[in-house]
Amino acid sequence: MNIEVIQGDITTTAADGILVGICEDAENLASSATDVAVVDKLMGGAIKSLVDAKGIKGKRNEVTVLHTVGRLPSRLVAVCGMGTRDKISTEAIRDACAEGCRALRKAGCSSVAAGLMADGDAGLSSSQVAAAMAEGAVLGLYTFSHYKKPEMVGVESVSLLVQDANDLTAVRDGVITGTALAEAANMARDMVNEPANYMTPSRMAEIAVELGAQYGFKTTVLDTEEMRTLGMGALLGVASGSAQPPKFIRMDYRGGADTSATIGLIGKAITFDSGGISIKPSQGLEAMKGDMAGGASVIAAMSAIARMKLPVNVTGLVPATENLLGSAAYRPGDVVQAMNGKTIEVISTDAEGRLALADAISYAVKEGLTPLIDVATLTGACQIALGNSYSGMFSNNQELADRIIKAAAVTGERTWQLPLADEYRELNKSLIADIKNVGNRYGGAITAALFLSEFAGDVPWVHLDIAGTSDSTKESGVILKGATGVPMRTLYEFVRCS
Fold first, then answer.
1. Residues sharing a CB contact under 8 Å with residue 247, sequence separation 6 or more, in sequence order
2. Which residues does the chain have with pLDDT short of 70?
3. How many domains does one find in the chain?
4. Residue-level pLDDT at 441
5. Is 106 considered catalytic here?
6. Which region holds residue 314: left if phi is over 0, alpha if psi is between -120 and 50, else beta?
7. Which of 69, 154, 363, 470 has its CA 20 to 30 A from that of 104?
8. In a 10 Å sphere around its CB, with 0-12 CB exposed, 13-18 middle and 19+ buried, how is residue 254 labelled?
9. Is residue 170 part of a domain?
10. For position 151, what pLDDT does the model report?
11. CATH number of residue 254's parent domain
């Protein structure tokens, strides 16, 4: 899909459908600060009539599609609710654009046009509005149809119409940024939506190599023997039950000064998680192809960082393996040794992600990366605690945690900080090893984060548990059914502001 910026007027565009925004508490259509008033006038007051009759309320994610009955060059107009005027944000704009574009696609539109859906009174620049609209269009129109025919005709073009020539450059810059971020997020979605017989550890490594060649970062892939030489006994323990060879993927982007610190992004990538010998129930087991969502988000974030040539140094690390039940599989009661020398008693082979991350975090510390951010579909306990709208966040450094919270607020990828409670550390104590990989049934997200903190040590570190947010069963705004791509855009925003 192509997004273009054109100097022009929404009332004269020949696109199949147009988008206009409307505020929930607007006293009149003109105060919605979009093109809705002028479109309504040309349509003989049809929109205002529906507003007066409460048929259009302007609530977030509400879309009403109207036929223009020949009064405009476009066939349809989608009136997109943006919530109350005082709360117009980039998130509201993203969601409104996503909902509107989907509604027009469903109505058979192959071309869509819109003016900027907010003005300076909302406290947003034209570049920010354009970036949000581009993100909304690309994220909202995403489909995964690799294995079946698309259910409807796709939108081929989206045009942003700018009346003031002085705004063209800023709007185009915003579209470039928004498109790059959304396409990277969709790339992460693609990887997570792929079935596990296609998205193997080797395929993830190939994608990282391909993206590195395309956008300009170096990719190094370690095989089993190289991991064994480094002492990655925890990761190799997880991999021991699968015929698929594990891969440790390292991606290096150097956009900053040689003397600058290098940020470490670490993503769990269990390309299929059966639970190992501590096998999972069969119900819902097919969803465990998505246990590599953290790794997918890191690979995609590295592509966006390099594509936008951010002036920073970043290294992405992705430990990729399956967790299966082969004859050589590791067992409950086994002891494995992580790269930093810590011994780990395996209580459950279904707590495998933290074992893979233990070696990846140890590797990052040895390489001097700082700060560290790991992303993982780690615990069902986090999903129970926070549901499916918020990722859990833990940190040993509050300043770093605050920066992640700020980045997440910008992207709309909701994140909630949970305590890294020292009094729970004793739950991870083992009688026969330095630490065990599972505490008791209570506070499972916290004890898992505490386990990981043992390998980060004093290095500033954040852990994002995306068990509840990596996948969605409903459609709302930029979030679709299936993989969400969370928290790729938050990682990018954090790096951009570093």
1. 201, 202, 204, 205, 221, 222, 223, 318, 320, 321
2. 26-28, 30-34, 120-121
3. 2
4. 86
5. no
6. beta
7. 470
8. middle
9. no
10. 80
11. 3.40.630.10
Q: Which two tokens stand for residue 65?
A: 């599609």
Cα 63 to Cα 25, 104, 385: the distances in Å are 16, 10, 32
280 catalytic residue (yes or no):
yes
Nearest to 354 by CA among 435, 261, 417, 415: 435
Domain housing 335: 184-496
Q: Please name which of 179, 423, 235 lies closest in space to residue 171, comparing C-alpha atoms.
A: 179
Please report the DSSP string for 406-417 in residue order: HHHHHHT--EEE
Residue 54 sits in the same domain as residue 150: yes
Q: Residue type at 133? A: M
Are 159 and 188 contained in the same domain?
A: no
Q: What one-letter code names the amino acid at 319?
A: P
Question: Tokens for 145?
Answer: 């149809």
Q: How far is the C-alpha of 346 from the C-alpha of 131, rounded, in Å?
A: 46
Q: Quote the pLDDT of residue 32.
A: 58
Catalytic-labelled residue, pool 71, 280, 414, 496 = 280
Q: Which of 250, 268, 307, 354 is catalytic?
A: 354
The pTM (predicted TM-score) of the whole model is 0.97
pLDDT of residue 367: 98
CATH number at residue 130: 3.40.220.10
Whether residue 64 is contained in a domain is answered as: yes
